[in-house]
Design brief:
This protein has about 300 residues and is α/β, with parallel strands linked by helices. It has two domains: about 120 residues, NAD(P)-binding Rossmann-like Domain (Rossmann fold, 3-Layer(aba) Sandwich), CATH 3.40.50; about 170 residues, Rossmann fold (3-Layer(aba) Sandwich), CATH 3.40.50. The protein has a seven-stranded parallel beta sheet with strand order 8-7-6-9-10-11-12, with helices on both faces. It has a five-stranded parallel beta sheet with strand order 2-1-3-4-5. β4, α4 and β5 form a beta-alpha-beta unit. The chain is elongated.
Length: about 300
């Protein structure tokens, strides 16, 4: 019988999902609801497995991990990003890697829009001041008629474009792999930074996108612009972003992702009231969770012909 390891369901999402029942009938499951915490412990958990259902990106599948697990044939990633998997090492060892693209696109795009509204309307700061008995008003801006520049037009970027257009924004976009997207004006990347009132990032993390938005790019953005990032934290130079926010060059940033997660206590971004921060939760809705887990299981079933 196949042996499938779930080494990192922490906090648990797979344990009580309908997807678990689908997988339980296919194979013997080796389930863990605490993070491995080390490369050695990850190897212990998956060393005897034919396949891994990977829940958390904190589990890093390195060349050493693949070398120590000769029985392993498949890593099924729950999520879109595979930056925590050494794909070259997997290929060299004959291990297939699958992911679940698109299933959380609507959820992440809605969260990006929520961050945008929170930033434009200063909702967290106004909520806090109102709770304190203050009555601060007149600090918001309208989004209708403003230019929204979208960097990356994959499934999430396209869905966010649709939402931004739906509230009356003029949507422009740039992508590494040029494609025509209905309702989105194709634009040069530097022009996007210079002319957009809102810049929303929807790129995957790869060597060519690490630090993609740094001091140069932030310096090109319009004074008073808003930056939204629901992609990966390492795409943005966080120190440069904190400076731009603290100095008032940017109006605000809405961030769901960070270079280090959880966000360390005392991080400069946590001290700025124009930084709207959420804990990498944009794709964590019941609908997106179940759809993604089901696809991750179906990827395993399809690979083994079950």
């Amino acid at each position: 019988m196949l042996r499938i390891s779930i080494p990192d369901d922490a906090p648990p999402v797979f344990a009580h999902s309908a997807a678990r029942a689908l997988l339980a009938g296919l194979a013997e499951l080796d389930y863990h609801d605490k993070l491995p915490g080390s490369e050695e412990r990850l190897i212990e958990r998956i060393g005897g497995a034919d396949a891994v259902l990977n829940i958390r990106a904190s589990s890093r599948f390195t060349e050493r991990v693949f070398a120590a697990c000769p029985r392993l044939r498949l890593v099924s990633v729950w999520g879109t990003g595979t930056d925590h998997v050494d794909l070259g090492a997997a290929r060299a060892r004959g291990v297939a890697v699958t992911n679940t693209p698109g299933v959380a696109a609507r959820s992440v795009a809605e969260h990006a829009l929520a961050l945008l509204f929170a930033a434009a309307r200063r909702i967290p700061a106004l909520d806090g001041s109102t709770h304190r008995g203050e009555w601060a008003r007149g600090q918001s801006i309208e989004l209708h008629g403003k230019r929204c520049g979208i960097v990356g037009l994959g499934a999430i970027g396209r869905e966010f474009a649709r939402l931004a257009a739906g509230i009356g924004m003029h949507v422009a976009g740039w992508t590494m792999h040029p494609r025509r997207v209905e309702g989105v004006e194709a634009i040069d990347l530097d022009d996007l930074y210079r002319t957009s009132d809102v810049v929303s990032l929807h790129l995957r993390l790869a060597p060519e996108t690490a630090g993609f938005v740094g001091r140069r790019e932030l310096g090109m953005m319009k004074p008073g612009a808003i930056l939204i990032n629901t992609a990966r934290g390492a795409i943005v130079d966080e120190a440069a972003l904190a400076e731009a926010l603290a100095g008032g060059r940017l109006r605000a940033a809405g961030l769901d992702v960070f270079a280090e997660e959880p966000l360390p206590a005392g991080h400069p971004l946590t001290r700025l009231d124009n930084a709207i921060l959420t804990p990498h939760c944009a794709g964590i809705t019941p609908e997106a969770l179940e759809a993604g887990l089901r696809m991750a299981v179906e990827n395993i079933r399809a690979f083994f012909g079950a």
